[in-house]
Amino acid sequence: MALPDPSPQNRNLPLDFFRGLALIVIFINHMPDNPWFWYTPSRFGLSDAAEVFVFSSGFASARAYGRCFERAGLWLGLVRVLHRCVQIYSAHLASFVLLALVCVVGNRWVPEMDDIQRLNIAYFFDATQQALYDLFTLAYVPNYFDILPLYLLVIVWLPIFWLVSRLHVGMAFACSVTLYWASYYYGWELSADPVSGRKWYFNPYNWQLMFFTGYAFGAGWAKVSVKHGWLLAVCLGLVLVSIPLEHEATYTRIKFWGELRANLTPWLDKSHLGVLRWLHLLALAYLMYRLCHWRSQWLHSPVPRAVVIMGQQSLPIYLCSMVLSYAGGIWLDHLGRDEWSAAALVNLSGLGLMLLAGQTMSWLDTKPWKVSQPERLAQSDNSYYFEPFMPRYRWVNQALALPCLIGIAALPAMLTHSQPSGIVATPDLAVQLREPDKEALQPVETLSPETEADKVIDSRQQL
Q: N or C: which end of the chain has fewer CB within 10 A?
């Protein structure tokens, strides 16, 4: 299949690449007991893929919704924001249903591992009616499913943020900082579990600062220059110092780094977006910006190009990564975690499926069924050489599609429930099956107090 060029003028290739890279890290980190987890950037820095994903989402929202507000006005821009909210909300519910199904399948495949308890969604199965209501109202948000509700809330706040920015962009960002500070001072939280009282792991009152920081850079309110050498030195120093602060083997063995990390714990809190995590992400973003400005052509090589395409399909690929990561954890339970080959097989298989899903979705976005054969040939670079052989290849494609069509057509037959062998359903048999078991029915004598009316009836019967 011919893929479109992933670099239109309105796309930011570095942004799409790092968003796709964050999705890869999220897949690895979310897999239960994944040995590859200890080699991801989150083990060597104060921020991780969650900060990258939220920051890049805010950056992309400035280009998408900010321009929509300016071009179409507030009301039509609000309609587009609400349309995106429906997509995010639907993806959140779909992710929970799919992961619940994966846990059920995992419990049947590997009975010794209770995946429902490991994912901490037993409340949904124990009190399904109330849990379903809490799930739809976002009163029940398990830890594994908390990034999309966070994204949903900050998108809802986006029109207000943009409206305040019409007065002054500094006032809009000041409102974001004030909300961040007020959440710390007053302890504002959202409930994520009605039973235990657990709060949202990603507090949206704090994490909105990361989203709107990305929005400020995406909208051009905040600009940086590649000419400041001192800024490069400061950012590089912050990134290097954060390595021993987050590397577990270092701060647990060296007393200095362990004590320093203990003193900085309030500034490293992930649930409430500690200030040092926010600064570390900004420093890392500046270093990556300098790298892309220095060597921008590397994004057009095959592997980065595939990651870029995956970043352009961030919402469906995120949903895909969640399902694949937990399914990969169940597969690791089945294969065993002692051998490195099993971990490599599971992780590389999942990453390959994610890349394939991104390519497929990008191809579907082109609506290839609307493109005629001459136009498809004109779009192909090698159509001149292969045009005499195209009829033969079309027959090959149809022959390959035939087994798929047969399998899809036979699917209802596979789901049809058949009668047990040797038994023919007849009307007489149906009557016999409905008859009660006479041997199972035994007469029971009951004793009741005899009344005067009973004595009169008994005497009349004797006469």
A: C
β-sheet bridge partners, residue 199? 191
CA nearest 27: which of 291, 351, 294, 272?
A: 351
Binned at pLDDT 50, 70 and 90, residue 378 comes out as low
Say yes or no: 272 and 234 in one domain. Answer: yes
Report the pLDDT value the prediction gives residue 411, as an integer from 0 to 100. 61
Residue 354 belongs to domain spanning: 16-45+309-363
Domain tally, the chain: 3
Q: Which of 311, 314, 367, 307 is nearest to 84 (CA)?
A: 314
On whether both 175 and 129 belong to a single domain, the answer is yes
Concatenate the DSSP letters of all residues of 31-44 into one string: STT-GGGGGSGGGS
Sequential DSSP letters for 138-201: TS---GGG-HHHHHHHHHHHHHHHHHHHHH-HHHHHHHHHHHHHHHHHHT---BS-TTT-PBPS
Looking at residue 3, the DSSP 8-state letter turns out to be P
Which of 383 and 128 is assigned the larger pLDDT?
A: 128
Give the C-alpha separation, 30 to 312, whole Å.
21
- Alpha-carbon distance 69 to 343, whole Å? 47
Tokens of 436: 């009660």
Q: Is residue 7 in a domain?
A: no
Tokens of 374: 């001459």
Same domain as 91, residue 212: yes
Ramachandran class of 197: left when φ > 0, alpha when ψ lies in -120 to 50, beta otherwise: left
pLDDT score at 266: 87
Strand-pairing partners, residue 191, are 199
Q: Is 264 helix (H, G, I), strand (E, B) or coil?
A: coil
Give the chain's mean pLDDT.
81
Confidence of residue 188 (pLDDT cuts 50, 70, 90): very high
Judge if 120 and 235 occupy the same domain. no
